[in-house]
Queue: 4 jobs
Job 1
Amino acid sequence: MKLLSGVFYALLVLSASAMAASAALIGSGAPQACTDEHVAYETYIGKDQNVKVSYSHCDDAPLVAANGRQTASLDKRQSSNVCGAACNTYCWTPAGGGPNTGDCAVIANALLYESQNVGALFNVTATGTPTDKITMQYKSCLTYFLNQDFSTLVYCRTEWSKLVNWLATDCDADNNAHGGLCVATDQRWYVQVQHS
């Protein structure tokens, strides 16, 4: 019986640790910003073609480390497929001024629609190229994927959809936040959700 209760306790601790690892970290400050953005092209996606997508490059895009803070440099990595890779979530305080979660759900659904009709995977070109940032916007919600790596990355629309929903609901006014981002644990990319 002691062995069984010990195993149960170990599973309980492991489960609690896993849940804590996925929780959002709350931090103050503004969303990561690009002041010198060059749009290569724009289009619309989704069943109703109502989500605007921009492919662009920022001359001054801040590099974000796995701890959510800006950094001066990142190490080169090997694999290009980062679909399903872990990321650390950071929310910006205080509450107020964040996107409408319903507007973000439209983007998340458009990503799922494109996944089913175009394909789950997409490429984001290497940092410093004309299309290293992909931005999606619907009404008050804006999300983007920024490649911070030195090579083209492959990511999946289904995972981006999940992150949009996660960040929109976990980094909202009810949680004393107004948007947030999820930075890859290896710092090669991040997804951000904010008010447009």
Job 2
Amino acid sequence: MSEVFEGYERQYCELSANLSKKCTAAASLNGEQRKQKLSDIRNGLENAEALIRKMDLEARSLQPNVKTVLLAKLREYKSDLNNLKSEVKRITSGDLNPSARDQLLESGMADALTASADQRSRLMMTTERLNQSSDKIKDSRRTMLETEELGVSILQDLHSQRQALLHANNTLHGVDDNIGKSKRILTNMSRRMSRNKWIVGTIVAVLLIAIALVLYFKLAK
């Protein structure tokens, strides 16, 4: 919920309650006192309209789910404001003559004030329900954020595991390369040993033949 909207909302509710009291007081006044009170009430109505416009602008600048809740509140506040305006019109019409004013106070004004009280009661109940809905939205948003954080954490863990697997894979490739090099070295060494064996065998055979020839010629003499 927007703190800015809630600030405007508190101001409006206080102003609305104050205007309702002033309307009740103005109905019992006469002459200049009534005119002064009505002028004060009209100024208050202008301030109330300004607050509703501010709330409307603030509500429309928010996310759709929050905006829907706040606009529903605004409809109740606008209805309450229209009811206050109707009360002012009824009081103003009482300036025609004393009998009309008395009749208004006895019938129409009483009905208007009763309707206003009922309207405010419904407004309070609706506001409470909307606040509960707002709390549910906050809880849902908090859960969504927690789920998002958990998802990010899981993705980070998966990324770390992927990096570890890639590192292990690179290490295995390195080991394979080293094994291949070792195998080639051993093969070359084996070939050299075989070649050296043939060379040594040939040398030994030549030496034996030479020794045999030397002995033969000595014995022949």
Job 3
Amino acid sequence: MFKKPITSAQKTNIKSSAQRALRARLLEQFPLLTPHIDDILPKKSQLELIKLPDRISLYALDQKVLFFQHFDDPLIPHLKLVHAYPQCFPRVQVDRGAIRFVLAGAQLMCPGLTSAGAWLPEKEDELKQGTVVAVGAEGKQSACMVGVLKMSTEDIKSINKNVAVETGHYLGDGLWKFVVE
């Protein structure tokens, strides 16, 4: 989504009512953020909406992008936010062989999540299709990508082919390098 650098953008302030709705939506989508939401989005702060081409919206606070969204898709956290609060987001892990493809912006395929060194949640903690996940790498602590599951984790284990995670944002992409002015 952000393979090329972000060039021009229209920036506007978000009304406080829309900010409250966004805050509620974040807590609904990521319930583990509840104890940290006042640190991430303080009540008296001014959130900015940055509109990009292709109906992509960035939500920024104090010159830092926190979340982004494509049209009416789910909100996807910026990797820097995932690095600050790693325990608040669902996580999967790729093996060493998939890391270079992830960092090049490729869609994450099922074999990268099912081979040795990779990790998926157990059946009782299954993640559903459409869940926003942080993708970690074997041997690394921080997430290297944030994306949306294209199939449930149990389907990934059983089918083991096709795209598993649609790339939203990865280390070194245009959003990672984007500076809010």
Job 4
Amino acid sequence: MAVREELIDLKFRIYDGTDICHDAYEPSTTILTLKERLVAEWPEGKEVTPKSVNDVKLIHGGQFLDNSKTLSESRVVFDGNVITVHVVVQPNGSKNTERNKSEKEKMNSCSCTII
């Protein structure tokens, strides 16, 4: 008889303090699978909305979770309480990134004025 691993009770807290996708997950669930569910079930009407799983970062225990790992490989273990995983949304190609690049280019350039 196979020993069944205990389910991990997770909830995901987004930037405004709202908890979403509260459920029990298998330890073999990958981080990528969790991100796909988060994007699919993202609450409507939020200021920031991820367009793809690449826009979502999950944080647990002060560490970003790797897409290719499972919950158990990421050391997310059930301790009898609901585990909160924090969600950060960083859209790829955001305006801040473009602005920062142009500011860096300006700082790296040299200009001389002859009077």
